[in-house]
C-alpha cells in the first residue's frame, strides 16, 4: 500500500493524470493497489501474476473442475494447469517457498549473510531464476539458467543488489507486508473495477483461472493463455508480454472511442 502511494505520487509529479499499469510479482499487488486507490487515473491494469480470494466458489470448482470443468467455468487449459491440484498447487508451492517463510519472519538472518557474500547472493537469487522459469530445471545440473537468460543479464540483476547493498531491505518487504493476514486487509476486500488484462504464463507457480480472477477483478477485457514463459515474464519473454499488453490497450482504447 505504501509503495502504491509512492508510485501514484510519482506519476502525479511527472504530470500524468491518466496512465496504464503493468505488473508481475510484487508489482502485480502494487499496481492493483494503485488501481484501487485512484481508479480515475488508471486507464487499464495489465498483470502477469494474479490471484483471487478463497471461498466457496473456488472450493466448489476444485471439487467439480477435474470432472465437469465447463460447469465451473474452467477451460481444458485450466484443468491441465491446475490438476492434480495437490501436486501442482500444494507440494510444488511448499518446495518453492522456503525463501518466503524466511523473508516473512526472519529477513535479517539470511539477509546479512547474502549481503556479505557475492557468491552467496548469486546463489540465493539465481535459484529462483532457474526453478520459476521452469520447474523441470530442478533436475538439471546447471539449473538450466542459460536456456532463457545470458550470464551477463543474470549477473546484471545480481549486481543491482550487490552494488547497492539492498538485498536485506528487499527481503524485509515480505515481513512488512505479511506480518498480518493479507486477506483481512481493506484492499483484499475491495474489488478492482478498472479495465483489466491478464496474461497467464504456463510456468507461473500458481495458476489462476479466469473464473477465479473475476471474483476480484470485475472488468476483465482480456485473459490470455500464454504459450510459454514463467514467473519472470518480462525478462524471459519480453516480446510475448509486450504483445499481450499492446492488444489489451488497443481493446480498451477502442471501447473508449466507441462509447464516447
TrEMBL record:
Keyword Nucleotidyltransferase (UniProt): no
Pfam families per the UniProt record, alphabetical: Abhydrolase_1 (PF00561)
GO biological process: arachidonate metabolic process; epoxide metabolic process
Keyword terms of this UniProt record: Hydrolase
Domain AB hydrolase-1 intervals: 3-197
Gene3D superfamilies named among the record's database cross-references: alpha/beta hydrolase (3.40.50.1820)
Matching InterPro entries: AB_hydrolase_1, AB_hydrolase_fold, Epox_hydrolase-like
Name of the molecule in the record: Epoxide hydrolase 1
Amino acid at each position: 500500500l505504501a509503495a502504491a502511494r509512492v508510485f501514484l505520487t510519482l506519476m502525479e509529479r511527472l504530470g500524468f493524470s491518466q496512465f496504464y499499469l503493468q505488473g508481475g510479482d510484487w508489482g502485480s499487488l502494487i499496481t492493483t493497489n494503485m488501481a484501487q486507490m485512484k481508479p480515475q487515473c488508471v486507464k487499464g491494469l495489465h498483470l502477469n501474476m494474479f490471484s483471487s480470494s478463497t471461498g466457496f466458489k473456488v472450493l466448489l470448482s476444485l471439487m467439480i473442475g477435474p470432472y465437469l470443468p465447463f460447469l465451473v467455468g474452467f477451460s481444458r487449459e485450466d484443468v491441465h494447469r491446475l490438476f492434480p491440484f495437490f501436486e501442482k498447487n500444494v507440494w510444488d508451492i511448499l518446495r518453492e517457498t522456503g525463501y518466503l517463510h524466511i523473508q516473512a519472519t526472519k529477513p535479517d538472518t539470511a539477509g546479512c549473510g547474502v549481503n556479505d557474500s557475492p557468491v552467496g547472493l548469486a546463489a540465493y537469487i539465481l535459484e529462483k531464476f532457474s526453478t520459476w522459469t521452469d520447474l523441470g530445471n530442478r533436475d538439471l545440473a546447471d539449473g538450466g539458467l542459460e536456456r532463457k537468460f545470458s550470464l551477463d543479464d543474470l549477473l546484471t540483476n545480481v549486481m543491482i543488489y550487490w552494488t547497492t547493498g539492498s538485498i536485506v531491505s528487499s527481503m524485509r518487504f515480505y515481513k512488512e507486508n505479511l506480518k498480518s493476514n493479507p486477506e483481512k486487509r481493506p484492499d483484499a476486500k475491495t474489488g478492482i473495477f478498472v479495465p483489466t488484462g491478464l496474461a497467464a504464463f504456463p510456468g507461473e507457480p500458481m495458476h489462476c483461472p479466469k473464473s477465479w480472477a473475476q471474483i476480484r477483478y470485475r472488468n476483465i477485457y482480456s485473459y490470455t493463455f500464454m504459450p510459454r514463459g514463467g514467473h519472470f515474464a518480462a525478462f524471459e519473454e519480453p516480446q510475448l508480454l509486450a504483445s499481450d499488453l499492446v492488444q489489451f490497450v488497443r481493446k480498451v482504447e477502442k471501447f473508449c472511442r466507441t462509447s464516447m
